Amino acid sequence: MTKIAVLGNGRVGGGLATALARAGHEVTVADRSPGSAADAARTAQVVINATLGAGSLERLTALREELQGKILMDVSNATVDGPDGLPADLLYPGSSLAEQLQEALSGTHVVKTLNTMLFTVMTAPAALARTPTAFLSGEDPEAKRAVRGLLADLGWHQEWITDLGGIETARAAEAAILFVPHVIRSSGFAPFAVSIAR
Q1: At the topology level of CATH, where does 3-187 sit?
Q2: Which of 126, 136, 175, 194 could form a disulfide with 116 if both were Cys (CB 3.0 to 4.6 A apart)?
Q3: What residues pair up with 80 in beta bridges, in sequence order?
């Protein structure tokens, strides 16, 4: 059992919290009240960033002390939205939210994952007709091993997980968000994920 704090209680955070609690972990979801995120992060072993990507860096930098020595599993995408509310560009071109977080939180082990799919696939990867891929980016092997374990608890087979390497590889995974609006306009709001075919 792992003590997990989920920051963000929308569809992404709520879905992850429910699935991980069902798998036997002790899960706390931070709400928007003052101090809630700090309290949740302080007692957790793993903190999941499921906040809106555009505000994630500011929100998590404020938790530097509480996140010291913790694993930060970052599933968010930092984008500039178009008029229709769908992602139109990256907020950190030439970088990534994960890299920005790792630079700001040097004492925290940031692992980027689960950001290349519609939120429903995060907790039900086997529901797709074809095998999806979950990517990992991060500097710390032990942190990535722990995140692999959590992904397994969410239904991800180990052969469906691809370790891309260091945190700088997150910029490639985060750039995949630019597919999303085009896929949605083309095929509708149906579950999908980026997959590496071999």
Answers
A1: Rossmann fold (3.40.50)
A2: 194
A3: 89
Given its phi and psi angles, is residue 96 left (phi above 0), alpha (psi -120 to 50 degrees) or beta?
beta
Handedness of CA 149, 150, 155, 161 (dihedral sign): negative
Domain extents in the chain: 3-187
The secondary structure element, H or E, covering residue 3 is: strand 3-7
Q: What is the pLDDT of residue 34?
A: 62
Strands 109-112 and 134-138: antiparallel
Going by C-alpha positions, the residue among 187, 137, 194 that lies closest to residue 166 is: 137
Contacts of 186 (CB under 8 A, 6+ apart): none
The structure tokens 């990992």 sit at: 136
For 161, the 3-state DSSP assignment is strand
* Structure tokens, 21: 């609690």
H/E element holding 87? strand 87-90
Residue with tokens 């997150």: 170
pLDDT in tens, 167-189: 999 999 999 999 989 998 998 88
The residue whose two tokens read 């709400």 is 31
Beta bridge partners of 47: 5, 72
In which order are the strands placed within the sheet that holds 3-7? Answer: 26-30, 3-7, 46-49, 71-74, 109-112, 134-138, 161-165
